[in-house]
Amino acid sequence: MDCEVAREALSARLDGEREPVPSVRVDQHLDECAACREWFDQVGLQARQLRRLVESRPVIAPVGPIGVQRATRRRRFALSWQRWALLGVGAAQIVLAVVQGTGLDVGLHHGMDGTNHLLHESTAWSVALGVAMVVAALWPAAAAGLAGVLTAFVAVLAVYVAVDAASGAVTLGRILTHLPVVLGAVLAAIVWRITPAPGPTPQAAEPDIVLPDNASRGRRRGHLWPTDGSAA
């Protein structure tokens, strides 16, 4: 029997696979060939060492989609001070809108009473901004869109406030009611910048296996190939 055929059969025997030739002929060749006996003893020793090494390593639990979702949910609701501030400003904006909608004095005059449709629109817009701030504080992924809307709104509002203040058409109290919107724009931009972008689902790292001496890494097809210095 050729040594290469015998070693291939011995490799299959070590892997618990069916030998390509009868075992009796392999054993007969093993008794007659000192080189194959030495090779078989060395490969068998490496296989046992590798098996003990794998069995002694701790089992690492894989990070599945459920675990990733739970970790993401915990990070989402672990509010930073910026998100707490945005949540408070949003609540203050809603309170101001409700006060305005009930007809209480918040600095509005010149015909904007409880039956004025413009007052109703302003109240609805104010409530919507407050709700959006609260949502962005709880779900920071929405902070990017809110920051853009509030920044544009504050820029346009600042022009109107300056013009109306110069003509005496707006009171200081009414100007101060716009402060939550300004703070909301700043906080929404900060929350957007500090919120990490969503990335791919992390995968569990596979532990590296330390091979015995004289072993080399490589890929093989089927069972162990009969080459000296291979990893059993």
Describe the structure.
This protein has 232 residues and is mostly helical. It has nine helices and no strands. It has helices at residues 3-14, 23-32, 34-56, 65-77, 81-101, 117-138, 143-167, 172-176, 179-194. The radius of gyration is 37 Å and the shape is rod-shaped. The two termini are 23 Å apart. Residues 109-114 have low confidence and may be disordered.
Helix percentage: 55-70%
Global Rg: 37 Å
**Proportion of β residues?**
under 5%
**Number of beta-strand segments:** 0
Residue stretches low in confidence (pLDDT < 50, at least 5 long) are 109-114
Structural class: mainly alpha
Oligomer designation = single chain
Largest sheet: none
Mean pLDDT across the residues is 77
Number of helices: 9
Q: What's the helix-strand series?
A: HHHHHHHHH
Q: Based on CA inertia axes, which overall geometry fits?
A: rod-shaped
Head-to-tail CA distance between termini: 23 Å
Describe how the helices and strands are arranged:
Blueprint: H1 3-14, H2 23-32, H3 34-56, H4 65-77, H5 81-101, H6 117-138, H7 143-167, H8 172-176, H9 179-194
Helix pairs in contact: 1-2, 1-3, 5-6, 5-9, 6-9, 7-9
Care to give the gist of this entry?
With 232 residues, the protein is mainly alpha-helical. 63% of the residues lie in helices and 0% in strands. It starts with a helix and ends in a 38-residue tail after the last helix.
What labels describe this entry?
0% strand, 9 helices, rod-shaped, 232 residues, mainly alpha
